[in-house]
Amino acid sequence: MRSLHGIRKSKAKKGSIRIEAGLEGEDLLLSVTDDGSGMGGETAARLLTEPRPELRTDGSGSSYGLYNVNERIRLFSGEAYGLSIATKLDEGTTVRVRLKPVRSGSDAEPPSF
């Protein structure tokens, strides 16, 4: 299965990707932002809500990796955690990951996948 990134689909065929990490209260937040082609809001929502989005001839929508990652995070940590996608056509996309920290020495065991 091939994966197409928003930058590859942009008109200029170049762009930047920014990766950030930080804390919000006790939660760990990760974000990956690009300035690529972006996508429609419906498409972004389907990536997180449908286990296998419809396969298109250009290869877009064929991945179910984001859905699986989101479901695993929510299963382990709860509904408040997981992925979110903010996107605008021709401006780019940000995928945010909210994780529940597991501190060493605590009674909580990390998930085994």
Describe the structure.
With 113 residues, this protein is of the alpha+beta class. The chain is 19% helix and 27% strand. The chain contains 2 helices and 4 strands, in the order ββααββ. The chain has a 4-stranded antiparallel beta sheet. The longest helix has 13 residues, at 65-77. It is globular. The two termini are 22 Å apart. The mean pLDDT is 80.
What order do the helices and strands come in, and which of them pair?
Layout: E1 17-24, E2 27-34, H1 41-49, H2 65-77, E3 82-88, E4 92-99
Antiparallel strand pairs: 1-2, 2-4, 3-4
As laid out across the biggest beta sheet, the strand order is 1-2-4-3
Class computed from helices, strands and strand pairing: alpha+beta
Strand content: 25-35%
The span between the termini is: 22 Å
- The arrangement of helices and strands along the chain is EEHHEE
Shape: globular
Task: Output the number of helix runs.
Answer: 2
Task: Give a short synopsis of this structure.
The protein is an alpha+beta fold.
